[in-house]
């Protein structure tokens, strides 16, 4: 994988554009010891010879034409957008959580919700993106004034632009919590114990770019004016300051030949570029400030990604275990069981570095360092099996994925209450 990452970009010096030659979609993990890799047609011969020289003999073509999946998704989106435009959103409960929305539509939903449910929902502004979009979230609490120092559950989504199911699930959960409070006993109990902070779209520039220009865009859209002018953006989940760049540094110390390394990358063109310095991305800087100063008693932190059906806990930057490793794994086990009971789907769990690969500069390492007891980077549906749609998961799966994630969070909340005796 590390070797492959080093080939991930080709620079066309005449047009000054960069084209991905190879894009790693899913890294090998413990239960799925294979990688999903998107290969540009002109790189296929080289790719095959690289595999041969690495003595990798099993190669399976999962999907010969990714563009046709993207085109089909686009047609459905345009159709839906036309249908929705006929009827402007009047109440928050009319919001259709079962489609992929634009940044504007997400914002409008949160605004309406906070206006129409002011006793429960407060709209919060967390940051401003490189291109000037406001990054919003909601704080949800039981009706009435919110209690200071109440423990909280924090959910963010959309860190990686192309992982569309993540913001969709976050929005689904917002609607479900408000809608089912007082009706669903589990939802009600959890909201009484915890305040919820949900930020459904923390990389709006990247997300909009993935909707309009490049469906497989992953990074932010910041301009690298000094380092490299034709490669845009950084990996927002390699940009956090705690142990930023450690993995790369370690590899450099071991005098690895290749510039690109798994975990984080110093080349601005890479899909896992960690940024020019810690918190170089205004989105991440804003999140860090908000998490540090505005949320007084964080108990659970979840960052939603796709795909692979995994609950990943810290550390990312090292193979060492955290001091509360066992408790985090116990909660993850209960969450995986709750998912299974809800939709029958299997999620695996473990630390990032033991399940997959080391990664430094992630939000979950930051949160662990901050002392948050329960932390999971969640890789939502699908699994990395053939014909599973990868990032182009059809919107018909939003509800089930949202329901199972809600069940997982309820289980983690219940576990936290049990262990911490809240
Ligand atoms: Zn991701």
Briefly, what is this?
It is found in: Secreted. By secondary structure, the protein is of the alpha/beta class.
Account of the 3D structure:
There is one protein chain. This protein has 422 residues and is of the alpha/beta class. It has a domain of 262 residues: 3-Layer(aba) Sandwich (Aminopeptidase), CATH 3.40.630. It is 37% helix and 16% strand. The protein has 13 helices and 12 strands. The chain has an 8-stranded mixed β-sheet with strand order 5-6-8-7-9-12-10-11, sandwiched between helices. The protein has a two-stranded antiparallel sheet with strand order 1-2. Helix 6 crosses helix 13 and helix 10 packs antiparallel against helix 13. It starts with a helix and ends with a helix.
Give the tags:
422 residues, alpha/beta, Aminopeptidase, eight-stranded mixed sheet, two-stranded antiparallel ribbon, 16% strand, globular, binds zinc ion, metalloprotease, signal
Structural class: alpha/beta
Which bin fits the share of residues in helices?
Answer: 25-40%
CATH C-level label of the domain at 92-210 and 278-420: Alpha Beta
The main sheet comes to:
8 strands, mixed
> Which segments are poorly predicted (pLDDT under 50) over 5 or more consecutive residues?
252-262
Strand order in space, largest sheet: 5-6-8-7-9-12-10-11
Helix-strand pattern, N to C?
HEEEEHHHEEEHHEHHHEEHEHHEH
**What do we call the CATH topology of the domain at 92-210 and 278-420?**
Aminopeptidase
Shape: globular
Distinct small molecules:
zinc ion
CATH architecture descriptor of the domain at 92-210 and 278-420: 3-Layer(aba) Sandwich
Radius of gyration from CA coordinates: 21 Å
Mean pLDDT: 88
Q: What's the CATH H-level homologous superfamily of the domain at 92-210 and 278-420?
A: Zn peptidases
Count of extended strands: 12
Spatial gap, N to C terminus: 43 Å
- Roughly what fraction of the amino acids lie in strands? 15-25%
Number of helices: 13
Function: Involved in the digestion of the blood meal.
Domain Peptidase M14: 99-416
Keywords: Carboxypeptidase, Disulfide bond, Hydrolase, Metal-binding, Metalloprotease, Protease, Secreted, Signal, Zinc
InterPro entries: CARBOXYPEPT_ZN_1, M14A-like_propep, M14A_act_pep, Peptidase_M14
């Amino acid at each position: 994988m590390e070797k492959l990452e080093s080939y991930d970009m080709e620079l066309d010096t005449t047009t000054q554009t960069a084209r991905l030659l190879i894009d790693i979609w899913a890294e090998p993990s413990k239960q799925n010891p294979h990688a999903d890799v998107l290969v540009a047609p002109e790189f296929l011969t080289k790719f095959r010879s690289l595999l041969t020289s690495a003595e990798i003999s099993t190669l399976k073509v999962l999907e010969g034409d990714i563009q046709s999946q993207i085109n089909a998704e686009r047609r459905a989106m345009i159709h839906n957008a036309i249908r929705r435009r006929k009827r402007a959103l009047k109440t928050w409960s009319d919001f259709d959580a079962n489609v992929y929305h634009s940044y504007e539509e997400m914002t409008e939903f949160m605004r309406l919700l906070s206006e129409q449910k002011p006793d429960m929902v407060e709209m919060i502004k967390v940051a401003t993106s490189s291109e000037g979009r406001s990054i919003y979230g909601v704080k949800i609490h039981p009706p009435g004034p919110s209690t200071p120092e109440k423990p909280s559950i924090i959910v963010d989504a959309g860190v990686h632009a192309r992982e569309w199911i993540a913001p969709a699930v976050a929005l689904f959960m917002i609607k479900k919590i408000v809608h089912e409070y007082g009706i669903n006993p589990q939802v009600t109990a959890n909201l009484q114990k915890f305040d919820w902070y949900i930020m459904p779209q923390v990389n709006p520039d990247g997300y909009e770019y993935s909707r309009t220009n490049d469906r497989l865009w992953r990074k932010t859209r910041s301009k690298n004016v000094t380092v490299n002018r034709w490669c845009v953006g950084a990996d927002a989940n390699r940009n956090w300051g705690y142990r930023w760049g450690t993995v790369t540094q370690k590899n450099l110390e071991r005098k690895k030949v290749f510039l690109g390394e798994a975990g984080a990358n110093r080349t601005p063109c890479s899909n896992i570029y960690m940024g020019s310095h810690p918190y170089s991305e205004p989105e991440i800087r804003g999140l860090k400030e908000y998490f540090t100063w505005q949320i007084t008693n964080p108990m659970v932190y979840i960052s939603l990604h796709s795909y692979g059906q995994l609950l990943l806990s810290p550390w990312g930057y090292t193979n060492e275990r955290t001091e509360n490793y066992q408790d985090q794994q116990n909660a993850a086990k209960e969450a995986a069981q709750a998912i299974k009971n809800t939709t029958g789907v299997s999620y695996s769990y473990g630390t990032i570095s033991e399940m997959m690969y080391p990664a430094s500069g992630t939000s979950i390492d930051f949160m662990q360092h901050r002392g948050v007891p329960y932390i999971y980077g969640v890789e939502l549906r699908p699994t990395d099996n053939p014909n599973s749609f990868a990032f182009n998961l059809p919107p018909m799966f939003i509800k089930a994925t949202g329901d199972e994630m809600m069940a997982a969070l309820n289980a983690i909340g219940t576990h936290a209450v049990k262990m911490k005796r809240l």
